[in-house]
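User: Design a sequence. Structure:
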């Protein structure tokens, strides 16, 4: 399966593959093993839509790869470039009449950064915080919706620094090959402050009769400083200085595939089958 958005770190030249072999083990229970055939049957006749930014696309690509080996080549179609009018990347599983889609909408609401190709993290943003209908019409008939938009709301202050991992000031995930093994680790960010706000919002939705499930992947992902795409993701527009100093442009936001996004989908799989 084609790796979208440069998720294959091996293809990008990464030789150390230890990051692929870690698995998340919760306390008090065991995650069910991801069964691609069972998932495909559960998706028969349905639309699974991931909505959000490139992190959501990371998870979408992981799900496509997890299911790919169980679908015959002639029974699937892939549109790797998406449509510039509906902003979608779509994999159609013909034998199951199912689709797995990613819809680009970094803020979920309308913004001037909604174009799936022509946008940049450093652009000044203009948001229509009460305007979601233009996007929502594309996922109205979805059977399973996965949302994410945290990263873009944090800009321009979003940074991943090695100081949280005991490294020198200004260091990042470049050349990291081991996860953080200290149980209970939290990165020095706003996660702990945001979580109560999210929980209160979910309670408000439930009182309105809408059931929304939060699958908290933040802390479990923070352990995995070894699993970012780092310099092994194709990047455009790099200067000669950046090319000469790889750690200056290491991507410490996105994730290698196989890797952490597979764990997110294992949790999603468990939720779909057991809740």
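Assistant: Done.
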């Amino acid at each position: 399966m084609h790796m979208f958005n440069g998720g294959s770190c091996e293809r990008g030249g990464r030789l150390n593959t230890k990051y692929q072999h870690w698995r998340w083990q919760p306390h008090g229970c065991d995650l069910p093993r991801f069964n691609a055939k069972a998932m495909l049957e559960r998706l028969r006749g349905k639309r699974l839509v991931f909505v959000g930014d490139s992190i959501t696309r990371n998870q979408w690509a992981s799900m496509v790869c997890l299911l790919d080996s169980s679908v015959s080549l002639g029974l699937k179609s892939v549109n790797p470039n998406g449509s510039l009018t509906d902003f979608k990347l779509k994999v159609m599983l013909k034998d199951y009449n199912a689709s797995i889609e990613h819809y680009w909408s970094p803020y979920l609401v309308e913004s001037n950064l909604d174009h799936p190709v022509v946008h940049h993290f450093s652009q000044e943003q203009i948001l229509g915080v009460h305007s979601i209908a233009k996007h929502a019409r594309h996922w109205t008939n979805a059977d399973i919706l996965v949302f994410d938009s945290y990263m873009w709301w944090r800009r321009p202050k979003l940074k991943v620094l090695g100081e949280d991992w005991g490294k020198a000031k200004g260091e990042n995930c470049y050349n990291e090959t081991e996860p953080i093994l200290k149980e209970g680790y939290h990165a020095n960010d706003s996660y702990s402050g945001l979580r109560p706000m999210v929980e209160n919002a979910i309670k408000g939705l439930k009182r309105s009769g809408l059931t929304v499930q939060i699958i908290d992947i933040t802390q479990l992902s923070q352990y995995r400083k070894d699993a970012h795409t780092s310099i092994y993701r194709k990047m455009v527009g790099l200067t000669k200085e950046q090319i000469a100093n790889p750690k200056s442009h290491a991507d410490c936001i996105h994730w290698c595939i196989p890797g952490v996004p597979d764990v997110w989908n294992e949790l999603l799989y468990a939720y779909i089958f057991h809740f």
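The longest strand covers residues 98-104. Confidence is low (pLDDT under 50) at residues 81-86.
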